[in-house]
């Protein structure tokens, strides 16, 4: 019987060592240690032995069983390590430097700039208002202290419609509605009117690289007790510095607009040259950006607000111009062209 | 408008001050100064008065002469000159060797065989007029060798004001007006205009003049005789030239000079033609020849100056040819008047003829100025032509006088408006410098507005704020935030929805946002075979391509798709924009904000592309409203719609838009090989749909079970009919269904639907699920949907 054990032990040693895969090893485990395996068979052949022999032989078989188990487990561990190593070694190197697939949509550049402005003003408690493109003469002119035959109407070549309405020539056309909408809350509850209204405006004029008949502005109004010119400068400077993500120098010059008094033209230090003077700013160091002013008492009154008690400022920021400045768009006509080669570049912005 | 600094300094002493700095200040405090400032005479040196001592013809050239000139340097200089007007004894402007005329530096040079040591100059060559017909003829009695700049005021700083920034300032259309601003900015005194005292002529006869129309506010006139001077003094001509006007003759120049100096347009008539001045309109239209020789149509609204019933000038715009000063005019009648600004402006527009005079009248000139201007005119006339004689009394009718404007306010008002501290002293000084009469008692101001600001410009208290702050300087303002309390601000729903939809379209579906115009593009749409549908039109479009407003974004978007066919094989675009769907009952435009999406593909099957667009629309509804859309087949309403697969999109049973395939006629015009689908949704209808709340469904602790069935669907049966077959089955435990496979051949359309069951209370049994599915299968077979083998 001992020979059998020795022979089997040798066989196990060889066969386990020669196993090449986990699957092969698993087959060996069954072959030797399974219910019908060789070692189990040895135990079955013990029934003819004496008690003493059984004891001795049994111990030897158990020893063999332990030996086989150990051999197989060790081999399993080795094979597993080999296979992991093989898997590691077989991984090819991918070229991470190949161009990434950046296929994606795009926002209109006006949307991007508009959102930036909206975010800034929302953070300062301004409401964002949506307003129609077709308005009445009252909204666009009368309510803004621009009566019929006022020379200011000449400054804006307006598209009139057959029904007597018109395409709004400036976002200020929303002012009256804003004052009326929020005025009650101001007067009764002391909640200041703070609103911006981005929108499309129209002027009946020939188009070229610098002129469009359709463009975007963003109107802003703030009305409360004691709103001052000093406040106006603060808000304009803060907003523009946020939009351009740097400290922007602003300056006011007198400007005539019938719906503000005093009225201003707001210039910002040239973004290209920083104020030194360059072709972009015609050597002046300044760019004219935004008409603004203290809301004219007649406009407040028309909106149901007593100008003796309340003051406010309003501004009309050229969103189209801002977008062109921010992104370096040279030809204003590109913006309404729908040319994807131009517009696909504006994927998103901060 | 061009301004001469020399001229301004006639009225305010700015010596010792940095002029450029002052001009910059003017731009920040008064009116926009154009960037380019002209330093007149800066590039001119070495030009002196010289006398031509001898003139010889050039032996070979008919044009050239050989001159000897005396430039006051004790010798005679040889000069070759081509001017036709050379003569012995003539004094002229002579550029010596070494002189500079702009870029040119004069050096001795041979000219047609003779050496020329300098150049005799025309007025144009030294930059004081545009006359280059001959060399300058200097009539002043000065020593040879006198520097031309010592003789004439050639050195000057000239700058230009953007006229647009003066629309509300009638007082600033003159040098005297700007001198007042400079005086206020520099804190210097404004000098009074030197004027003839006109009352001395009161005993002379009056002119027969009568205002017969309320559009004339004031008419002042006076007659002058015996004017012998025909050419204006050089310095006057230089100023006019620097300010952009051509010298004509002494009288014409003097009226122009007055207009530029005090801002009052004036006109000189031949007295023989205006014996009976009447200012009126005519009932019937007629033609009238203005002094530029043009025949103009005059209608019943145009105010005319007449000699009794014969028109002699268009009031405030231009004189007539017939009453112009001519060679044999001996007596002239000087007009200085003001007219209704709106009337002048409208006449200008009707006549399509804007003049320097009408430009000023449109701004509401101060009627107080008419007699002042005549006084100044006579003063200058007599100064430059000693023989001139006034032969009439000042004849003046002042029909419309503006009210005196007095404004009362207190210090607190100024503080509120400015947000900074400006002292009472500063306020008083600023306003006084600008011509306001100020009374201050305690903190209460009472301010009388000067007549030249009171015609329309300064009428309310807020106007005073501008006067105070602009001179104070906005650069000097402290910048402060507000002290308003905080309140929550809720975003407008439509704006919120628009922003989120854009994000979905750009980020999830890679679509590109476009903007197109609010009107139909006639030409581009015609090329695509899309007729422009009748809608509200522009009343005054100057471009025939854009007369009708769009009632949908899709056609303009398709024009843009057409322009992008070379961009790629597949792309999708969208726009959130506005359309006008005709008029509402109240006659106002029915304006709506729409979302329009178009997908273009040369690689995808139509079905795939169409369902992709359906998915986009469904995701928008699911994301923003947590709702499922339904669809209703509709008949085409527009020529570009394919009649098949055209559906109205509904949310909560309300129509919000349309989805469809492009009609092949249009599609072929865009790209024969491309499939194109579109959808348009009303933003307001979509926004109005309520947002369904998110109902949290706690995941079950018990295992869920699935059950797949593959069914064959007969043609014409829609999936929504299938859904009805299980809508009422297994309600509490059927958690959802989805299509996990589709199988289509020519003959059959088949799908595999996976049903998911789960319960929060127990483990489900196969039997109960089988029971439910048997019912579902039975329901399906009733509508002809059978299990696939």
Describe what you observe in this structure.
The complex is a heterodimer of chains A (350) and B (789). Chain A has 350 residues and is of the alpha+beta class. Chain A has two domains: 89 residues; 235 residues, BirA Bifunctional Protein, domain 2. Helix content of chain A is 44%, strand content 17%. In chain A, β6 and β7 form a beta hairpin. The model of chain A has no long low-confidence stretch (mean pLDDT 90). Chain B is 26% helix and 27% strand. Chain B has a seven-stranded mixed beta sheet, with helices on both faces. In chain B, strands 3, 4, 5, 6, 7 and 10 form a six-stranded antiparallel beta sheet that branches. In chain B, a hairpin with a 4-residue loop joins β35 and β36. In chain B, α2 packs across α4, α6 packs across α9 and α13 crosses α16. In chain B, 41% of the residues are buried. The mean pLDDT of chain B is 94. The interface between A and B is large, with 85 and 91 residues.
What topology does this entry show?
The complex is a heterodimer of chains A (about 350) and B (about 800).
Chain A: H1 2-18, H2 22-33, H3 38-44, H4 51-90, H5 109-123, E1 127-128, E2 134-135, H6 137-140, H7 152-155, E3 166-167, H8 175-189, E4 193-202, E5 214-224, H9 229-244, E6 250-254, E7 260-269, E8 286-295, H10 297-302, E9 311-318, H11 319-327, H12 334-337, H13 340-343
Parallel strand pairs in A: 1-4
Antiparallel strand pairs in A: 2-3, 4-5, 5-9, 6-7, 7-8, 8-9
Chain B: E1 2-4, H1 5-9, H2 19-29, E2 38-40, E3 44-57, E4 65-70, E5 76-81, E6 91-101, E7 104-105, E8 109-111, E9 114-116, E10 119-121, H3 148-151, E11 156-160, H4 175-186, E12 209-211, E13 216-225, H5 234-242, H6 250-262, E14 266-270, E15 277-280, E16 286-289, E17 295-298, E18 304-307, E19 310-314, E20 318-319, E21 331-339, H7 341-351, H8 356-361, H9 369-384, E22 389-390, E23 395-398, E24 406-410, H10 411-418, H11 424-433, E25 437-441, E26 444-448, H12 461-472, H13 493-508, E27 512-513, H14 522-528, H15 554-563, E28 570-583, E29 589-601, H16 606-625, E30 630-633, E31 647-651, E32 654-661, H17 664-670, E33 675-682, H18 683-688, E34 705-713, H19 719-727, E35 734-744, E36 749-757, H20 766-782, E37 786-787
Parallel strand pairs in B: 12-15, 27-28
Antiparallel strand pairs in B: 1-11, 2-11, 3-4, 3-6, 4-5, 6-7, 6-10, 8-9, 13-21, 13-22, 13-23, 14-21, 15-18, 16-17, 18-19, 19-20, 24-26, 25-26, 28-29, 29-33, 30-31, 31-32, 32-33, 34-36, 34-37, 35-36
Helix pairs in contact in B: 2-4, 5-6, 6-9, 11-12, 13-16
